Amino acid sequence: MQDKTEQEGVWTEELLKQRRRRAAIMAVALLGFVALFFLVTLVKLGANVANRGI
Amino acid sequence: MSQAAKQHQGFDEPVSLDTGSAADFIELMKPRVMSLVIFTALVGLVMAPGSLHPVIAVAALVLIATGAGASAALNMWYDADIDAIMARTQSRPIPAGRVAPGDALTFGLWVSGLSVMSMAVLVNYLSAALLAFTIFFYAVIYTIWLKRHTAQNIVIGGAAGALPPVIGWAAAANSISLEPLLFFAIIFFWTPPHFWALALVKNADYQAASVPMLPVTQGEKATLTQIVIYSLILAVTTMTPWALGYSGLFYAAGAGALNLVFVGLALMLAFAKPAQRNRMAMILFAWSIFYLFLIFALLMADRLVA
Question: Could you report the predicted ipTM of this complex, rounded to two decimals?
Answer without folding.
Answer: 0.77
